Amino acid sequence: SWNPISVDASDTNFVAVIADRYGSVFAATRNRVYVSRDDGATWVPAYHSLSGFVRNLALDSSGVLYVATYGAGVLRSQSPASRVSREHVTRSSTWRNRIVVRDGDPTVVIDALPRELIRLDVVTLDGTSVYSVSAEYAEPVIISTQHMANGVYGIRVAHAGRVQSATMLLLR
């Protein structure tokens, strides 16, 4: 059976929810994230007025919250339920970003439009390539950051004669 949880009676359009093993639950509307530290009994706003629309939430093994947005990139909390800082910026109408956490490893996922020919490169600040692929995709491109050191990386996607780029700050 299901038990309804009341987070915010004025905004019932939730787009994502995630829980950790310690009883914390995070729920997101389009521009706000709420947190409950008692399995959903009481709620408080964790992040107000996020720029961009929230698309997904993820927690890593240390409890750091990642908020994937459309229009403002991926935000990473400084610590569980604290302030959010800009982590990854993507501004494009033809490819979108979200974050997936697998075994505590943040994985960048680039969703290209269906059946679109793309070239994707991830490089370090000095231009050293750490990932490169050119193919036609109907599924998301998954780039594991497990083998990558902390630092700033450039992401470049070329498609339909245009180039989109973003930066990614990887911190573990």
Describe the protein in words.
With 172 residues, the chain is an all-beta fold. It has no helices and 15 strands. The strands form three sheets. Strands 5-6-7-8-15-14-11-12 form an eight-stranded antiparallel β-sheet, with no helix packed on it. β1 and β2 form a beta hairpin. It is elongated. The protein starts with 15 loop residues before the first strand and ends with a strand.
Question: How are the SSEs placed, and which strands pair?
Answer:
Blueprint: E1 16-19, E2 25-28, E3 33-36, E4 44-47, E5 53-59, E6 65-70, E7 74-77, E8 84-89, E9 95-102, E10 105-112, E11 116-124, E12 129-137, E13 141-144, E14 151-159, E15 162-170
Antiparallel strand pairs: 1-2, 2-3, 3-4, 5-6, 6-7, 7-8, 8-15, 9-10, 10-13, 11-12, 11-14, 14-15
Task: Give a quick summary of the entry.
The chain has 172 residues and is an all-beta fold. The protein has strands spanning 16-19, 25-28, 33-36, 44-47, 53-59, 65-70, 74-77, 84-89, 95-102, 105-112, 116-124, 129-137, 141-144, 151-159, 162-170. The protein has a domain at 1-89: Thrombin, subunit H (Beta Barrel).
**Mind describing the biggest β-sheet?**
8 strands, antiparallel
What characteristic shape results from the CA principal axes? elongated
CATH class of the domain at 1-89: Mainly Beta
Indicate the proportion of strand residues. Answer: over 45%
Helix and strand run: EEEEEEEEEEEEEEE
What structural class do the secondary elements suggest? Answer: mainly beta
Instruction: State the separation between the terminal residues, measured CA to CA.
Output: 38 Å
CATH topology name of the domain at 1-89, in short, is Thrombin, subunit H
Number of strands: 15
CATH architecture of the domain at 1-89: Beta Barrel
Number of helices: 0
Average per-residue pLDDT, rounded, comes to: 69
Helix content: under 10%
Q: Uncertain regions: pLDDT < 50 for 5+ in a row?
A: 81-104
Radius of gyration of CA atoms, rounded to a whole number: 17 Å
Q: Give, in spatial order, the strands making up the sheet with the most strands.
A: 5-6-7-8-15-14-11-12
